[in-house]
Amino acid sequence: MRVSREQAALNRDRVIDTGARLFREKGLDGIGIADLMKASGLTHGGFYGQFESKDALAAECVTRVLGKSVERWRRLLEEGLLEEPGGDPLRTLVEDYLSARHLNGPETGCAFTTLAADAARRGGAVAQAMSDGMEALAGILRSILPDGGRGRALAILSQMAGAMTLARATADPALAEEMLAAARGAILAGR
Amino acid sequence: MRVSREQAALNRDRVIDTGARLFREKGLDGIGIADLMKASGLTHGGFYGQFESKDALAAECVTRVLGKSVERWRRLLEEGLLEEPGGDPLRTLVEDYLSARHLNGPETGCAFTTLAADAARRGGAVAQAMSDGMEALAGILRSILPDGGRGRALAILSQMAGAMTLARATADPALAEEMLAAARGAILAGR
DNA sequence: ATTATCTATAGATCTATAGATAATGC
DNA sequence: ATTATCTATAGATCTATAGATAATGC
To answer: d(Cα A66, Cα A56) in Å, to the nearest integer?
Structure first.
């Protein structure tokens, strides 16, 4: 039954990865600990040896997901710079975020678009993880904006998150694509 | 036990109002039928005589909430026009939406900011109600934009919804207010 | 006779905990 | 000896339905 410390750490890590996916897919109230642990290949009761509560796991998942977004944005900017030294870094990020791939893959996408309302309701560590992620992503945006303004970075961040959130809530694929295109246009024109 | 048709219609209406509030406050998965009916002054089992399912009620609630937003926007524009004939209608709407009042009152606020992610997961009638609301609100925005462009209207709509959603998800009130101010600035400058 | 609402329940799920087990790490 | 994981369960909640009740509306 018992595994090595190393394996236990890997198991814990896998639970966070599973939560990161299932919470985005089903919402924080849409998946239970038992199913989450089963999807991680562990049993229900084992959860509470690794995490204090469901909220604590949710906060770790949000931190991980937004950390992955930071990594992705940095990589996109690096690669874009290498491929095309005089390119348009903001366009690179915006087209990646407001893409059909992101629209159709909420379970692997930005936590803002799937978990922001849940975070607002729960507050605490989950909301703190959201705040930290916002600061980090806004910082990246500032670094590639001509004036480097924090306000402009926050506006772009919320424009991107809002457009993807509404596009997914739509019953009409054409309206969804219009929403994304409109936001891409507004962000890239407003400079 | 049985009440008149008129009273039954009033009871049904009250359940929708209760759902409109509690769903926004707690999320679609955060409140059950039994508690919702109790909050409406009725018993659990009575629900299924009035609604086919929880999803069906949720769709009616989204329709009602976004209908109220349409009413509110129309009223704000009418009143603004009466008070100041040469005023700034877009500013009126944006300042009302991106306000501290709206930030602190999700249970009476725009459905986009509280229920969009849930609608994306559920699809069906709930997502259809979201789509219809988006079209209606975008139409109002178009009517007050100088070029009347649908793209610009959709961009403004998602900018407003996104900024409020992220502002509420924040653990830091200062960051929340920065987010709202940034979006107000971006929308009103981008004309 | 119809029907709005009621009580009661099925059957499934929820978070969290208690205590057992068995392998690790000292 | 410690501890990662297990089984089992408490106690609460979930959606939905069945069948009873009693007042309305014909």
So the answer is: 16
